[in-house]
Design goal:
Strand order of the largest sheet: 1-2-3-4-5-6-7-8
CATH class: Alpha Beta
Number of helices: 13
Order of helices and strands: HEHEHHEHEHEHHEHEHEHHH
Radius of gyration: 20 Å
Length: about 290
């Protein structure tokens, strides 16, 4: 199945916006599919948190990120859009980054114009490359893909460093360099959010990082009406997990029980949510059992 082609078909459908909740592991990816969404976003912050137990400060490596992307792809039949940070180096490194993510099976990636030390787009202290430097990274990414359907998303973090006008200018430069989608990180007012799709000469992605972020939190219908083609919600599963795990551990410590009497799941329901049925079908097809064994 060509997930990149499917993602492109979404982008080419008039008046359609792809809603991609953030997955940080196989469980969250499966639950996103179960909920009926059409795409998954592999969050870099979630990958750093789940695999390393560390904040989003660029600590994850290319191989760690690609391994997580491959695991998520394996758990769902949905197109996966993956965070690829800065491309992990110069344009030559970007070539390898694109090839590795392509092999993982994701439908597309976004690469950002931050310089090191990089950090979450909604944290202070970011720095960005000169736009000409990042243009070369985008050109390298576009040329490196073996599947021409593979979606290259250019992210600029210039809004927080040089202001909104510079972020828009960079977005259009990156579109001219061949990026399929433009992602302006951290617009800070409702007016900025609303004007981006009108000012950028390419499909636009918006990051809904939540009410505590730099960007105003808006319903998907409003974002669609503004003209966005992709809306990612990176923290939706990760924040729910953080809250729920804390509550479960508090219950275990205070009450001495590890289950929620109001919301029992149990091993069977858990395994069913993780695809037990499909594995049972394979077991029946490929493994014969003699009676009594």
């Amino acid at each position: 199945m060509d997930f990149s082609k499917r993602l492109r078909s979404f982008l080419s459908t008039p008046d359609k916006m792809v809603i991609a909740p953030g997955a940080y592991d196989g469980i969250s990816a499966r639950l996103i599919a179960e909920a009926g969404f059409e795409a998954v976003y592999m969050t870099g912050a979630g990958t750093s948190a789940s695999r390393l137990g560390q904040p989003d400060l660029g600590l994850t490596t290319l191989t760690e990120m690609v391994a997580n992307a491959a695991a998520i792809v394996e758990c769902t039949e949905l197109p996966v859009i993956a965070d690829a940070d800065t491309g992990y180096g110069n344009p030559l490194n970007v070539i390898r980054t694109v090839r590795e993510y392509e092999r993982s099976g994701v439908a597309g990636i976004h690469i950002e114009d931050q310089s090191y030390p990089k950090r979450c787009g909604h944290m202070e202290g970011k720095q960005v490359l000169k736009p000409d430097e990042f243009v070369q990274k985008i050109k390298a990414a576009v040329d490196a893909r073996r599947n021409q359907e593979f979606v290259i998303i250019a992210r600029t973090d210039a809004r927080s460093v040089h202001g909104f006008e510079e972020a828009v200018r960079r977005g259009n430069l990156y579109a001219e360099a061949g990026a399929d989608v433009i992602f302006i990180e951290s617009p800070q007012t409702l007016e900025e959010v609303g004007s981006i799709p009108q000012l950028i000469k390419a499909p636009c992605l918006i990051n809904m990082a939540g009410p505590a972020s730099k960007t105003p939190a808006l319903p998907n219908e409003d974002l669609k009406r503004m003209g966005y083609r992709i809306a990612i919600h990176p923290g939706v599963a990760m924040e729910a997990a953080l809250t729920s795990i804390r509550l479960a551990l508090k219950r275990l410590k205070d009450e001495g029980i590890s289950w929620d009497p109001k919301n029992l799941v149990g091993p069977q329901k858990l395994f069913e949510a993780m695809g037990l049925g499909s594995w049972r079908a394979r077991e029946k097809k490929y493994i014969s059992r003699e009676e009594g064994t």
